[in-house]
Amino acid sequence: MKTFFSTTTLLFILGITTASAIPLENAMTHSKPVEINTILDTNKSWAGTLLPGFSAGQTAFKVLTFKISPGAKTSIHVHPLNGAGYILSGELTMYSTEDTHGSFANPKQVKKIILKAGDAWTETVNTWHYGENNGSQDVKFIVVFAGQEGTPPTLTLELPTKK
After folding, report:
1. Domain boundaries, the chain
2. Strand-pair partners of 139
3. Which residues have a Cβ under 8 Å from the Cβ of 83 and sit 6 or more positions away?
């Protein structure tokens, strides 16, 4: 009799364990998969220059969102930090210059890229550039900067005032 109860108890426990494992197994095999897509993997800026390595010190990240209205443009600026961006909507045209003073007068020194929704890019580092919205809708994008803590992500060009 003792063997009967032990066997029955064992079968009962196995039955519960097996029954409870089936739905869990089904849930695991029928769950939606995680999808990961690489949108950018590079060691160069959009203008083709190699990105600098990180400097010593504490690394910090800054994530910014931007919205540029149709017809508007950013100031001429430079980034002392590595940065990467992603266009959420609209179209952004960016221009960079090899001129160390930030002049865009010589077309041979100017590079241009047009980015649309879904495009990703790496920012130029220590290269003067600007962006403009030549489209009919706002351009919205995100840029992530990484570098030494305390370093501003953007420095603007101070143009001389006309007298």
Report:
1. 59-156
2. 68
3. 122, 123, 125, 143, 144, 145, 146, 153
CA 103 – CA 96 distance, rounded (Å)? 10
**Is domain 59-156 in CATH 2.60.120.10, yes or no?**
yes
Edge-to-edge strands of the sheet including 77-78?
Answer: 110-116, 91-97, 129-132, 77-78, 155-156
Q: How many CB atoms lie within 10 A of CB 12?
A: 10
Q: Which helix (H) or strand (E) holds 17?
A: helix 2-30
Q: List pLDDT tens digits, range 45-103.
A: 999 999 998 878 899 999 999 999 999 999 999 999 999 999 999 999 999 999 999 99
Residue in 152, 150, 160, 159 with CA at minimum distance from that of residue 78: 152
What pLDDT is recorded for position 158?
A: 72
> Are 91 and 114 spatial neighbours (Cβ–Cβ below 8 Å)?
yes
Global pTM value: 0.74
